[in-house]
Design brief:
Length: 388
């Protein structure tokens, strides 16, 4: 059975009401038939629901679907993507451990690694993500964790995941990949050698900008440790949000195909425009890692970046002229969204770090939606023509 079919047909066990669509389990706790059953479930001698901070049928259904899509042994859901990222580190690392991470990470990830885990005696070395030799050189005897995004946010840098995974062979090192931009439709990092894969389900997994959520999928031995941390600290996903996210997965494949098709078409029409310094998209031949993108990803994804000549002043002018695109820090919506990373999502980074990551004052991240591509092309072209 194909994954698209499974994403639609996997469902929590039907109740006596014989519902076709899974109901919402909006309950904080569950009952036991007697005290002995309660004891047995708490002792892990019997499977069963206890408390929605631990497990819930809606959350379990969502996680089961994500595990299937990512080819994972186990998984756990969280209230947000950042909660998932933090739990992967707090649940697996201890004082004295060392992390090697790509320098092209979402701003909050960098803040965790430089301002939070650092307080606990966990050291982090940042490296250029595409430079496998830099990763190799940064690994120390106490390195326990490799962390990266591919494609990265917002620069769309790709990392050769099999080559990175080869660096941990024979070592007690966990490779964790943020797969938010690609989703399991475009790539499955676990099949390329990763141990854990993380998603901000708020983005493409939801797909309509409605709810927050996060998920980690991967090897059971690591998920078990993360689950212990999560059970006792409480970053649980709400049943309602899990219900929404599980239903969203039924159309994830179809949505990602269309997002990618629209993004490719928009990138092609904008490339070379006189108002832009450049256009970056993984499936454009001009992308420095085009061959890797074609080898590692099924499609190019729904994100492209444009670098507007004239910097922030021209970006503001363009944003006022666009009639369709929304201005928001989110992405992965049915609606096209533009974001100016230098002043929003990555505004806390020092100027030199922004420069090293290619986050210029003119850089705009375009999360291409599902609108008519002809309408999108016309809208962006009219705005860019007026500012050029």
């Amino acid at each position: 059975m194909q994954k698209q079919t499974k994403a639609i047909r996997i469902q929590a066990e039907r109740s006596q009401n014989r519902e076709h669509s899974v109901p919402l389990y909006l309950t904080s706790s569950f009952t036991f038939e007697d005290a002995e059953q309660g004891r047995a479930i708490f002792a892990d001698e019997m499977a069963g629901n206890i408390y929605s901070r631990y497990m819930n049928p809606n959350v379990d259904e969502f996680v089961e679907k994500m595990n299937m899509l990512e080819n994972a042994e186990d998984g756990i859901a969280f209230s947000t993507g950042m909660a998932a990222i933090f739990a992967s580190m707090a649940g697996l690392l201890k004082a004295g451990d060392h992390v090697v991470a790509s320098n092209a990470l979402f701003g909050s990830c960098i803040q965790i690694l430089t301002k939070i885990t650092a307080k606990w005696g966990i050291e982090c070395t940042f490296v250029p993500g595409a430079d496998i030799n830099a990763w190799k050189a940064a690994i120390k005897p106490n390195t326990k964790f490799l962390f990266c995004e591919s494609p990265s946010n917002p620069g769309l840098e790709l990392i050769d995941l099999p080559a990175l995974a080869a660096l941990k062979e024979g070592k007690d090192i966990i490779l964790t990949v943020d797969n938010c931009f690609a989703t399991p439709i475009l790539q499955t990092p676990l099949d390329l050698g990763a141990d854990l894969v993380i998603h901000s389900a708020t983005k493409y997994i939801d797909g309509q900008g409605r709810v927050l959520g996060g998920v980690i999928c991967g090897k059971k031995v690591y998920i078990d440790e993360i689950r212990f941390f999560a059970r006792h600290t409480g970053p649980s996903l709400s049943p309602f949000n899990a219900w929404v996210l599980s239903k969203s997965l039924e159309l994830l494949d179809l949505r990602l195909q269309k997002h990618s098709e629209n993004a490719m078409a928009l990138a092609e029409v904008l490339e070379g425009h006189k108002a832009l310094n450049n256009v970056k998209y993984p499936y454009l031949k001009s992308h420095p890692q085009y061959e890797l993108a074609k080898r590692q990803m099924k499609y190019g994804g729904g994100i492209l970046t444009i670098d507007v000549k004239g910097g922030f002043e021209k970006v503001v002018a363009m944003s006022k002229l666009l009639k369709i695109a929304s201005i928001s820090p989110n992405l992965g919506d049915t609606r096209t969204i533009i974001t100016h990373p230098a002043s929003t999502t990555h505004s806390k980074l020092p100027a030199e770090e922004k420069a090293s990551l290619g986050i210029t004052d003119g850089l705009v991240r375009v999360a291409v939606g599902l609108e008519s591509i002809e309408d999108l092309k016309a809208d962006f072209l009219q705005a860019l023509n007026q500012i050029s």
